[in-house]
Amino acid sequence: MEEKIWFFENVNLFNMLCPHKFKAYKNHHEFNSYKKQEYIYFEKDNATNVYLIEKGKVKIGHYTSEGDEVVKAILTKGEIFGEKAILGEEIRNEFAKSVDNKTSICPVDVNTMHDLMRDNKPFSFKIYKLIGFRIKRLERRLELIMFKDTKTRLIEFLDELCEDYGYNCEESGNKIINHPYTQKEIASLIGTSRPTLNISLNELKEDKFIDFNRNQITIFKN
């Protein structure tokens, strides 16, 4: 329940924070547009901004020494990223890349963010809670990738999706998840290949644990 609440709070961060909504910043504020696969920032870039997603999706990750991409998160409309700059991060240790062809980003200078947080203590508290929540979720996902098989990782991820995007169907008691991810993105997030993910999804479907289509997953009541 706590994580589900945090998802809805994250969705509202754009409306609460974007500088164009504040008279003091409105005339000096612009949105940035990105096409699919364009980088918003790279690893080793200076961390001078925090970013809000007006529309589209953004992938957060890093590259291994062998050049393999490791996806840490895929964020959607209303969410914030690059938030570690608030805590004093000077150099990025991750990249941010647009996933959609029409992604619109609201960049917020770190000093502006600090001003807004100083003037709004409840919002400041939410930001710090969000950072802690993100770290906790990432640690849990990395632990699953290291020690659990693909099917177990998928089930755990479905629970996470349900917390963020799910609702109960009153008549059947099933849990319906309307999510924004492709199968390729889900595979990246749980550290597996798309074919292996497909096998696990179909096994869970055969076991009558789930049903799924492109952007909806149903978890059947036990």
Strand-helix topology:
Layout: H1 2-11, H2 13-17, H3 23-26, E1 32-34, E2 39-41, E3 49-55, E4 58-63, E5 69-75, E6 80-81, E7 95-98, E8 103-109, H4 110-119, H5 121-147, H6 150-165, E9 166-168, E10 175-178, H7 183-189, H8 194-206, E11 210-212, E12 216-219
Antiparallel strand pairs: 1-8, 2-7, 3-6, 3-8, 4-5, 4-7, 9-10, 10-12, 11-12
Name its key features:
222 residues, alpha+beta, Jelly Rolls, Arc Repressor Mutant, subunit A, 2 domains, four-stranded antiparallel sheet, 8 helices, globular
Characterize the structure shown.
With 222 residues, the chain is of the alpha+beta class. It folds into 2 domains: 144 residues, Jelly Rolls, CATH 2.60.120.10; 72 residues, Arc Repressor Mutant, subunit A (Orthogonal Bundle). It is 41% helix and 24% strand. It contains 8 helices and 12 strands. The strands form 3 sheets. Strands 1-8-3-6 form a 4-stranded antiparallel sheet. The chain has a 4-stranded antiparallel sheet with strand order 2-7-4-5. The chain has a 4-stranded antiparallel sheet with strand order 9-10-12-11. The radius of gyration is 18 Å and the shape is globular. The protein starts with a helix and ends with a strand. The N terminus is likely disordered.
